[in-house]
UniProtKB/TrEMBL annotation:
Keywords: Cytoplasm. It is found in: Cytoplasm. InterPro entries: CofD, CofD-like_dom_sf, Gluconeogen_factor. Signal peptide: none annotated. This is Putative gluconeogenesis factor.
Amino acid sequence: MKMKTYRIRKPKIVVIGGGTGLPVILKSLRNQSADITAVVTVADDGGSSGELRDSVDMAPPGDLRNVLASLSDMPKLYEDLFQYRFHEDDKFLANHTIGNLLIAALSEMRNSTYEAIQLLSMMLHVDGHIYPSSETPLVLHADFDDGTSAIGESKIALDRKTIEKVYVTEKNGEKAVHAARKVVSAIHEADMVVLGPGSLFTSILPNLVIEELGEAVRTTDAEVVYICNIMTQKGETEHFSDADHIRVLHKHLDSKFIDTVLVNTEKVPEGYMDPEIYDEYLVQVTHDFNGLREEGCRVVSTDFLKLRDGGVFHDGDKVVDELFRIVFGAKI
């Protein structure tokens, strides 16, 4: 068999998602030899991001800010300043971060959040590419199994109903069709596309249900990997197994497009999680390996667990080691 020259270049890895899980993986990827592209959700409507999104008419900056910080080589003092959040009693600056305000200012100056992120990427010496999934802010909708619906990412989990499907629209109500520039080409040129970790219905699917983006993930020749969440999430994935996550993804794109799923099998110590801080997470995701195989997935199950500050996280280094084993194995 003829050996490819693949190992002499960086593998092209596209990571799609949002929330707190994405930066963990990106930071570890940055420490390895990878050509990274991060595609970040723009459907957040809560907190500082939601306020700035409404007042400046921009894509929500919070997830983009965290991704910028994770891929930048800026000194710790600069990162602390970029991530600094004003106190609740600071009147009109309450709860805003410096980074969010910088993204808002550049978005207004250039009339484009996409351009703002490209400029900040250069300013902060970002190693990789960061693109919002859409160049316009999107509205997330959820239809529940009881026939009711909710509008807005921050509203979806409140009533703890079973979600039937989610979809995104432009702010004018039109269907979200177009991905941000370079996103589709990055997915098609990738060696691997990684989904997650992150909230299934509010961080991962809001990207995939953008018509162009979902079609690109469904049809790419890249290895598509899903990093399954460790814990179930209140109002989103209560009582879910790992196979349930995959079934939902496949149902939304009407295709069995996930090639490999990474599943944590290490137990979280009983009573470890601090419910005051991590009140949205419930119990560990259960395992259904037969269900995963029925969905056509290769399963990698091992210890991906990292316990920190009363919370449960993926160990980024362990995950990235596995991603590199997969991407090199798939291309030889």
